[in-house]
Amino acid sequence: MERKVKNKKCKECGGNFTPFKTTQVVCGAKCAAKLAETKVWKEKKKVMIENTRTRTEWLSLLQIVFNKYIRLRDANKPCISCERPLTNKFDAGHFLSVGSYPNLRFNEDNVHGQCVYCNQHQHGNQIEYGLRLPLRIGNDAYNRLMNKRGDALKLTLDEIKELIKIYKSKIKEHGKSTNN
């Protein structure tokens, strides 16, 4: 008894075809060549975009990845300010603001899961945040954080890209540890 091969839809032209192999995704040589060209163009485009990004755009990308890591890290903890359980939507709230202390923007001890109400509507709920922060990170880490307030943040483009890789790998590792 022979199995009947199901028709597939061509990834390039959208037409139906009967594949010779189960891994075949296009109907013929012309579509295969076009698909290969498209893949090459996508890679070139990706490189071009990366090469034309400004330092500010790279910092924004780093901020997004960093905040995602903080949200994953603090998902099972209560809000740092009010201690209410965090819902699906919560912020990565900075104790010492990014505007006043840009050098602490990516300091993990300075950023914790914070409910939207405290972070956005209570302007960070700083008094409560300040009371609970030493309890969460310890007095030594709190004192180190406070002593770093005057330092400057001078990240090179390569350092920013490296931090993006580091936080992406931390996110990946965190995902693996929660799946096991």
Please give a structural write-up.
The protein has helices at residues 29-52, 55-73, 116-121, 126-137, 139-147, 157-179; strands spanning 8-9, 16-17, 90-94, 111-115. The protein is mainly alpha-helical and 180 residues long. It has two domains: 9-52; 75-164, no CATH class. The strands form two sheets. A two-stranded antiparallel ribbon has the order 1-2. A two-stranded antiparallel ribbon has the order 3-4. The radius of gyration is 24 Å and the shape is elongated. The two termini are 42 Å apart.
Domain tally: 2
> Strand sequence of the main sheet, in spatial order?
1-2
Per DSSP E runs of 2 or more residues, the count of β-strands stands at 4
Average pLDDT for all residues: 91
Largest pleated sheet: 2 strands, antiparallel
Structural class: mainly alpha
Give the distance, in angstroms, between the N- and C-terminal Cα atoms: 42 Å
Cα-atom radius of gyration: 24 Å
Given as residue ranges, the uncertain stretches (5+ residues, pLDDT < 50) are none
- Helix count equals 6
What is the share of helical residues? 40-55%
Overall 3D form: elongated
Strand content: 5-15%
Order of helices and strands: EEHHEEHHHH
Highlighted features:
180 residues, 6 helices, single chain, mainly alpha, 8% strand, 52% helix, elongated, two-stranded antiparallel sheet, 2 domains, two-stranded antiparallel ribbon
Overview in brief:
The chain is mainly alpha-helical and 180 residues long.
